[in-house]
Amino acid sequence: MADWGAYGNGCLGPCRLAGLALLFSVGILLQILGCALYNNWWPMLTVLMYILVPMPCLFFGNTSSSDFISVDGGDDWADAAKFLTGFSAVGSIAIPAILRHAQLIESGAMWIEFASFIVVLATVMLFQHVSQEEEYY
């Protein structure tokens, strides 16, 4: 029974990764359901924003994730990356709201898209938390 602690710690890494993959899959499933249930594929425009969100960090932010969260003044390119990432994240919420205002999608589709955004955001935040732990390989 003393080995259970070592076994449990060894299992947590793959289990966390599988949980994050499952959570991300649920977010993508909600994204597709928001379109398929209402037979309207306009909400898939938010997938474009999901693709654009990490791009500024990849191109301009040559910093680690802990430096990216800090608000200290520093590199102008890193600040530009933070701004563009925030702009893309707000766009992920704004696109369904604008489409609903223009009456291109139903209210139910908009709420499902918001739920998808929350699930994907939770996945990203949990991944960042898990990747910053020392015992996670």
UniProtKB/TrEMBL annotation:
UniProt-annotated location(s): Membrane
InterPro entries registered for this protein in UniProt: Vps55/LEPROT (IPR007262)
Superkingdom per UniProt: Eukaryota
Membrane topology: Multi-pass membrane protein
Major place of residence: membrane
Transmembrane segments: 17-38, 45-61, 81-99, 111-130
Keyword Isomerase tagged: no
Keyword ATP-binding included in the entry's annotation: no
Alphabetized UniProt keyword annotations: Membrane, Transmembrane, Transmembrane helix
Pfam families given in the database record: Vps55
Family: Belongs to the OB-RGRP/VPS55 family.
Protein name stated in the entry: Vacuolar protein sorting 55
Source species of the chain: Sphagnum troendelagicum
Organism lineage: Eukaryota, Viridiplantae, Streptophyta, Embryophyta, Bryophyta
